[in-house]
Amino acid sequence: QVQLVESGGGLVQAGGSLRLSCAASGRTFSRSVMGWFRQAPGKEREFVAQISRSGDITYYADSVKGRFTISRDNAKNTVYLQMNNLKPGDTAVYYCAADPYYSGNNPRTRLDAYTYWGQGTQVTVSS
What are the tens digits of pLDDT across the range 100-127? Predict the structure, then answer.
């Protein structure tokens, strides 16, 4: 069982930055592929970023590439999402997710690829 708790969301002006954190409980964090997803009002939840177990391989949605950076600290059981140059279109609830069963390095962009989910943190970007 893995429990995930996101934090760091808030209200920011366009062009600003936020750093989201996701703290994981349990002993499987370092063996888990971690992902960030987001869901805007009236829209489906979508993939944002993914990081491999060791942190050396990352994938991003085209909409955030060059602006967002995913990273992890396995010693702290935490994954981060640094978001720069935020746009109003980035407004959404952001969720972190864990997949402790996949050992490869391919992109995992589908929701059903992940077993555990956090409760989400709201990010609002004003224009």
Answer: 999 888 999 999 999 999 999 999 999 9
